[in-house]
Amino acid sequence: MSSLENAPRSSTAAVPYRSLGEPFLAALETLADAPNGAWWADVLADADLLLAVRNRSLNVYYRGASLFRITPASEGVAAETHVKYLVRQRQAMTRLAADGGFGLDPAAAVWTRYEGPATLAEMKRAATPLAGLEKTGVHALVQASPNVVDVEVSLTGAPLDSAAEPDGAQAEVDAAFQSPDVNTVPSSTRQDRLDVASLEERGVADEAWLVFHEAKLATNPALRSRSTPAIVGQVERYRATLKHEADRLAKSYPALCRDLVRLDTLRRTVRLARGLDVAALSQRDLLVAEVASGERRLQVDSEPRLVLFGFDAAQRDGAVGTITESLRTQHGLRVYAVGRPGKGTAAFRRPKDLSSEAV
User: What's the superkingdom here (predicted)?
Assistant: First the structure.
């Protein structure tokens, strides 16, 4: 496999927050060409999968499901997955014996070894029914948005006054918002998870803005209430967290962008080596490379955007329009209603006119 000398290199100094670090990146590049790296090369070649840079780790997402969490290890690279993604997707019956045992061969029920693209394909199929309509829609919106740089963004929540802490009912709502792959955190720590982070330019040649988005199906009950919809409190907490984390995010996301540029180069290299069409991979917005190189200084927008999707023109002019207007005018939220996810749905961008709704 060809070298990646044209890709920007991360510094060998201290690894920034939300960055892989040079040794880990080099190990990932080496693994893609190694005999024991077939699974990683399959991941890189799969245009349906999203790579999300974490703090010295990498998540591989499919429709909101983390199929792999990849970390540095003494032997180079280690990967782990949830057993639920290893269930073989086969129609099979098994008999319950009188002693309570099932006549089942475990090797026929779950993958016990990675056996090439067939294993990865079945992992994706296993994740599909677990994802739900909302995560599936967000995945499609991300793939149609070349300026997206992060997904499933987990941040340590800003301290809140005791009076503002979620009560039991709100905690239940928060739990419903969380991805099933979120790790349990101590009760004293609140983890805020936003769906998407993207870059945009605002007319200043040497600047780019990092913007965070929460995406919801238009049918999500958190959007409507006779008093205050649950989404209002959720966005309020996100706003506080982004203000609290703004400096650290502005310093760390250029390194994340450098990692993405390098990983994108690796993905193209693998697809070319396999004779696959490179155009099938999402092409990053030029802003990503410009932030990565330092050509643009990164600013953080601490006001989250709410993206509504999953509706048609009739719903836009009816119930969805009413909800959108209420969230904007009564609760001061930035709302962008994009309609149905598709290849041409540019959801995670700066809306030129928030009153103009796409379908």
Answer: Bacteria
